[in-house]
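Q&A FORM
Asked by: J.P.
Topic: structure of Cilia- and flagella-associated protein 300

PROVIDED:
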Amino acid sequence: MTEPFVFNKIDKQFAFLKNREILEKLQKWNLELKFNTFNYDKPADEIDMARLIQNFFEDEKLLLSLQMDRYVNKIDVRQLNTDIMSMDFFDILYKASEPPVLRQTGHIVGCPPDVRNGVAVEDELRKMLLDEESENYDLFKEDEREELIFELFSSLVLGGPLCQYEDEIDQYFETTKTIYKDLVAIKQNSAGVKDIRTAAFIVDVQKQKNCISTHYQPGGACHPHQQTKMFFLVDPFYRHITIMSHEWPKNAL
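REPLIED BY: S.T.
REPLY: Here is the structure written out as C-alpha cells.
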C-alpha cells in the first residue's frame, strides 16, 4: 500500500507581496488574495498529482489549520496549462476589430453597461472574459482559457465587488506579469530550452450532506462564483504547494 503524502506548512515569501504598487493595485481592484504554502515529503511526478491533491484534502489537521471543514467529501479538480512564457500571449486583444477590445494606445474600449453575476461589465475586455455571446469571446481558444496566466489575468481584471476598474490595459498586464513570474518556477534542459515546471490546478472543495453542498476555501465556507477561486500550484522540484485563493462575498451577489 502506498503511504500517503505528509504535509507541513512553511513560510514562503513572495516578492510581489512586498511591492507597494502591486498591493495598492490589488486593493484598488478589491482583490483580497490569500496565500498558504506547504511542503510534502516525497517526490511526486505528473501521474502522482491526483493522489497528492487527494491526500492534501484528506489531512484533517491541515484542513483545520486552513479553517476548512475536516469532513469535506468532494473535490473537483481542473488542471490548468502552464505553457505560456511571454506576455505576447495577450497581443490578440489588440487585433479584435468588431468591436475592438483595445485601442492601439492600450485604452480599453467601453460597451453598454451590464451586470453579470454581480460583476459590472462596462467594457469590451470584461465582456470578452465573461460573456460567451460576446463577439470577442473566441479570441482565446478553450485551451488558451485554461492557461494559468489567463485565469490570473481574468481574476485581476474582474476583481472584487468594489473593484475600481482601469481604463488602460498596461496596469493589468504589468501586474499579471509580476505575479505570474513569482508564482511559477522555470526549468532549463541540457539544450538550454526553458519551460515551466509548476503544475497548476483550480480546486473546488465541498462538504455534501443531505443533497446540500457547502463549498470551502482557506478561511472557511464560501459561495460559488466566477471570482471565487482556489489555485493549487505544485513545484515538484522543491516539493512545494502554494494555495492562492480569492472569494467573492456572498452578500455581494
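FOLLOW-UP: Residues 7-83+185-249 form one domain.
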